[in-house]
Amino acid sequence: MKHFSQDDHQEEDIKELIKQYQNLKQGRSHAFLEEDDFDRIIDYFDDREDLTEALHAAETGLEQFPYSAQLMLRKADMLMANRKYADALDVLETVALYDSNDINLYILKTDALLALDKPQEAALLLESSLYLFSGEERIELLFELADVYDDYEEFDKVYDCLQLVLHDDPNNEEALYKICFWTDFTGRYEESIQLHNQIINEYPYNEIAWFNLGSAFQGLKLYEKAIDAYQYALVIEEKFDYAYRNMADAYLRLRKYKDAIEALEKVMEIAKPEDFIFEAIGHCYHRLHNYGQARFYYKKASHLNPDDSKLYYKIAVTYMLEKQYASAVRLLESAMQMHRHNSKYNLAMGECMVQLGRFKEAIGCFFTVVKNKPKNIGGWEALIRCLFEGSFYAEAAGQCIAAIKATDGKPLFYYYYSAALLCMGKNKEALLQLTEALQKAPHLLKKFIDIHPVALRNSKVVSLIAEYKKK
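RESULT FIELD:
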């Protein structure tokens, strides 16, 4: 004997309903269909994405029950699904005459107004309907209103709506998660601290409220207080990985790199591996001058995200800090295959080439930097210093002139020009340029001595410097 489940019975019921509905449409004899039956028939066609037939079912139902607000709402819903927004609004105006206390009336009307690009009207509708509802329905409308404000970029009002939700329902998870984002976006950190302290006073075991409190403190750069709040959140929910992430960031800001590493390692225990977590641990070890460990984590990050050229650059920098320039070059080549003209990568490659005595290749890298960023002082300085290292003094002098033009006469390049002219034996012109430099920026004199220390053996240079020191 075959047994029928509840689902089987429901399926048989709906099949019978559809059969009776088809009989009605075709003018054949049929069982009487109730208002709720039409509701189910509309659902049947809607679930099968036959929106035209769903709309027709709503209209047929209204022929039988012309004053049914419920079926009018279903018709409006189906009109909207068929993108007939103005027609839907007309139907909803009629609904309001029969039943103005159905929340779906306001939600559908809001959606229709938004679809017709009338967000201000949608907002006014929801604002005026808030007083009609309480409890969960009022909260639902507040979320709708928040979305409308988001649509037309009234971001402070989005925050206000979420705040109202939390006044009504302090443990509302959706509002708690959303208000954390909007606090950061609007910068309303002090208000957020006040709000979440109130929630915590009433519900001390609400870990999201503790997290949001920490996030607000972090927004105000009160990192110690932020860490305390995150620790409370973690006492309540020990697998709260975002609390560990934010805590790690706060420790980083305080330069407490060992504590940051500990927090980031907790994230890895709880969540799946992510490239930026490995990168952050690498950064901490980098700051602790543990370049081997930094490299280890940067490489882990790179394995997860091999298209991120920045990671190859960071690994290269750890090699450069250990004076392993050949190894650094290999990593920089990988980075530059992705971004050939990146100034940072070219500067690093140029520096490696200088250290390896490959001056012409270094000059090529530095030329790329000044070509792409002609106002970048660092690029010009690297190029000119490289030309000095390679004893290309005439070329260095020419590039000093170009740098002075490109950077609107930065005094540093007058010093370098003077040094280049001294190396070329053009003492008289060199002293004129040094005078110009000393007049413009005497504090940069050490740069001149650094690039050409032999200049201090020149009595005229020493006299000129002494004269400016007296002044």
